[in-house]
Design goal:
mainly alpha; ARM-like; Leucine-rich Repeat Variant; 25 helices; Armadillo; Armadillo repeat-containing protein 8
Length: 395
């Protein structure tokens, strides 16, 4: 067990003029900082001295060790210091010390969870550097950490535009197509987040050669996480009316209707989102109304996950607009689950659930009226007696 006195002793040994000695001390303090209790002690007794050393040193090892220590503290305490983050950004921009790049990127990834870091990324226009690293670096950890950074930044409207303007989306599509599964998944979520943040991205998507066929091919994967992110991307792409028609003509609805693994938790949200947006096209409403898909939708409703209610009720309402689908919805027994959502807090969920039930009841009432009319006709014209007479005449 390391006590506070050892940390104080290490900090007191820091000497601005002894580079070799400082390297060893700072590296030791970094590894000690991974323990949250020791991290607090390092910050309490050494913050000022470490920050002063950071301002004076030109040694990349010392710089990285101090940055990693301070980044750990900032992440765990949300006590933001812009100077420290800017130091990291400048190191990434100007340094040729690739040996330490992985450590800086890792710290930046942790700090990206804090909104202020993304604001500094935009201010310093760092995205071109991230994209350059993605293109040139073969280190798996560096690539993954940059992709996680871009995922976070992709949720910001302005940052996502800067990623796109620096050819980031093109590089992400390349990785999604050609990289290993872990990189493919990370790149896919970055793509999805960027598309979700940018309005009117239809023409942008169409500018990438082969992207629609790539999406269709990805639906054949057996990797659940790759399939999940593919469905999430589809949900965004088909928000554009023209892209929706292109993918529909290429047979995407049939492929999605035949998907396996629908009981996996990872697929619930992206599957529902994709179906909800695909069902905007009337011709897709009929194709999606097969027993297999409807059973999956009922199962998702039974999960009682509020995050799924909006896309679920939307797609079920769209399906209910086709009379033949109402029969399947009745057979599967989805109505009781919808009834529970009429009192949901979300007004859109309420409306879609109520309208779906209305459509189902309307068909049921029509069928009942037809049945009653038929019974009435039969009662007025006894078929059996007529048949008997015909039989007698025949013989």
């Amino acid at each position: 067990m390391i006590d506070t006195n050892i940390i104080i002793s290490l900090i007191n040994l820091i000497n601005l003029t002894n580079i070799e000695f400082n390297r060893v001390i700072c590296e030791s303090l970094y590894y000690l900082s991974l323990d949250l209790n020791l991290l607090q002690s390092i910050y309490q007794y050494g913050f000022k001295k470490l920050k002063k050393l950071l301002e004076h040193t030109k040694d990349p090892s010392i710089f990285c060790s101090i940055i990693n220590i301070l980044a750990e503290f900032i992440h765990n305490n949300e006590n933001i210091s812009n100077d420290i983050i800017l130091n990291m950004i400048n190191f990434l921009k100007n340094s040729s010390y690739f040996l330490y790049l992985s450590r800086i990127i890792k710290s930046l990834r942790e700090l990206t969870k804090i909104p202020q870091t993304i604001e500094l990324f935009k201010q310093e226009e760092i995205f071109s550097q991230f994209i350059l690293c993605l293109k040139n670096e073969n280190n798996l950890d560096i690539k993954l950490n940059i992709l996680f950074i871009l995922q976070k930044c992709g949720k910001d409207n302005e940052a996502s535009k800067m990623i796109i303007d620096n050819d980031g989306l093109q590089e992400l599509w390349t990785l999604f197509k050609l990289a290993s599964s872990s990189i493919k998944i990370a790149a896919g979520w970055a793509i999805r987040n960027c598309l979700a943040s940018v309005e009117n991205h239809g023409e942008l998507i169409r500018s990438f050669d082969g992207v629609f066929y790539l999406i269709l091919n990805m639906l054949s994967t057996e990797n659940i996480d790759v399939l999940a992110v593919t469905l999430a991307i589809i949900a965004e792409i088909v928000k554009d009316e023209y892209n929706l028609k292109i993918l529909t003509d290429l047979g995407i609805v049939l492929k999605i209707s035949q998907l396996n693994y629908l009981d996996y938790a990872q697929l619930r949200k992206p599957f529902c989102d994709a179906l909800a947006n695909l069902s905007d096209l009337p011709k897709n409403q009929e194709q999606l109304g097969n027993r297999r898909v409807v059973i999956a939708l009922k199962h998702y409703l039974q999960e009682q996950d509020p995050e799924l209610y909006k896309p679920l009720t939307k797609v079920i309402y769209d399906l209910s607009r086709v009379p033949s689908n109402c029969g399947i919805l009745h057979e599967v027994g989805i109505a009781p689950n919808l009834l529970k959502l009429i009192g949901d807090d979300d007004l859109i969920v309420q409306e879609k659930a109520a309208n779906a039930i209305r459509n189902m009841r309307r068909l049921q009432n029509m069928n009942r009226e037809i049945e009653q009319t038929f019974v009435k006709i039969v009662s007025q014209n006894p078929i059996q007696k007529t048949t008997d007479k015909r039989v007698k005449c025949f013989f």
